[in-house]
């Protein structure tokens, strides 16, 4: 098993971009688990499943042919032959992904895929980021980090990423998604043994350095 760095945090905390850069600098693999839930939401919509109906979501799993690379350099997400790397970032996907992710059968199915990806990465280590990595997916990881930032800063970062919606819409969506998601897993407070990195007053590079500092201490 490679050296696992588990990173959790709320929407807009910068976990994906920070984790990917940390992985790149350390020569580690990178796994964005939120992208898998997003890819399933994309697939469910594409085949006309009802995302409000758990049974309909569960049945969409049987045709969910999903592939995600663990190389931070060539990061791409595919469903079947379709490259959905960009499409899964659409606000329409963000709006429904929590409904898909709250279904226990979905979580069990994806967690198995995550563990398989972790075990087979060709790199010496892997940074895995999401909401339940430190607590459910890899609770025994040698490094477990909760990446946080104040809500105002997270909303500002998320709205800067989006092209279409106004800051208000982005902020409202982020709040709603965190509320829905935290009913399923707690990623707002650090579990025992998890190190909190608060990026509110840090820029991108300082946050990357802070995370690498935590990893170095454990290695
Ligand atoms: O990290 P990101 O915002 O892309 O995650 C998209 C969605 O996937 C979250 O809002 C949440 O519903 C779900 N998710 C999850 N567990 C994870 C990662 C993401 O439920 N480990």
TrEMBL record:
<dbReference type="InterPro" id="IPR027417">
    <property type="entry name" value="P-loop_NTPase"/>
</dbReference>
<dbReference type="Pfam" id="PF02224">
    <property type="entry name" value="Cytidylate_kin"/>
</dbReference>
<keyword id="KW-0547">Nucleotide-binding</keyword>
<dbReference type="InterPro" id="IPR011994">
    <property type="entry name" value="Cytidylate_kinase_dom"/>
</dbReference>
<keyword id="KW-0808">Transferase</keyword>
<dbReference type="GO" id="GO:0005737">
    <property type="term" value="C:cytoplasm"/>
</dbReference>
<comment type="similarity">
    <text>Belongs to the cytidylate kinase family. Type 1 subfamily.</text>
</comment>
<dbReference type="GO" id="GO:0006220">
    <property type="term" value="P:pyrimidine nucleotide metabolic process"/>
</dbReference>
<keyword id="KW-0067">ATP-binding</keyword>
<feature type="domain" description="Cytidylate kinase">
    <location>
        <begin position="5"/>
        <end position="216"/>
    </location>
</feature>
<keyword id="KW-0963">Cytoplasm</keyword>
<protein>
    <recommendedName>
        <fullName>Cytidylate kinase</fullName>
        <ecNumber>2.7.4.25</ecNumber>
    </recommendedName>
</protein>
<dbReference type="GO" id="GO:0005524">
    <property type="term" value="F:ATP binding"/>
</dbReference>
<dbReference type="GO" id="GO:0036430">
    <property type="term" value="F:CMP kinase activity"/>
</dbReference>
<keyword id="KW-0418">Kinase</keyword>
<feature type="binding site">
    <location>
        <begin position="9"/>
        <end position="17"/>
    </location>
    <ligand>
        <name>ATP</name>
    </ligand>
</feature>
<dbReference type="InterPro" id="IPR003136">
    <property type="entry name" value="Cytidylate_kin"/>
</dbReference>
<dbReference type="GO" id="GO:0036431">
    <property type="term" value="F:dCMP kinase activity"/>
</dbReference>
């Amino acid at each position: 098993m490679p050296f696992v760095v588990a990173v959790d945090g709320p929407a807009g905390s910068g976990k994906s971009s920070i984790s990917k850069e940390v992985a790149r600098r350390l020569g580690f693999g990178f796994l964005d688990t939120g992208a898998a839930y997003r890819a399933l939401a994309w697939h469910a919509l594409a085949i006309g499943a009802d995302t409000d109906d758990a049974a309909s979501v569960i049945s969409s799993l049987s045709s969910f042919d999903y592939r995600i690379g663990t190389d931070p350099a060539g990061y791409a997400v595919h469903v079947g032959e379709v490259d959905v790397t960009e499409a899964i970032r659409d606000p329409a996907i963000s709006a429904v992904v929590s409904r898909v992710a709250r279904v226990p059968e979905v979580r069990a199915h994806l967690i198995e895929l995550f563990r398989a990806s972790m075990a087979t990465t060709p790199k010496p280590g892997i940074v895995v980021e999401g909401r339940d990595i430190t607590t459910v997916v890899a609770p025994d990881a040698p490094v477990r980090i909760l990446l946080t930032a104040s809500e105002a800063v997270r909303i500002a970062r998320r709205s800067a990423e989006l092209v279409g919606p106004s800051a208000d819409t982005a902020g409202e969506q982020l709040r709603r998604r965190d509320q829905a998601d935290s009913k399923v897993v707690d990623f707002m407070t650090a579990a025992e043994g998890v190190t909190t990195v608060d990026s509110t007053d840090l820029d991108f590079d300082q946050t990357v350095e802070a995370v690498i500092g935590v990893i170095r201490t454990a290695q």
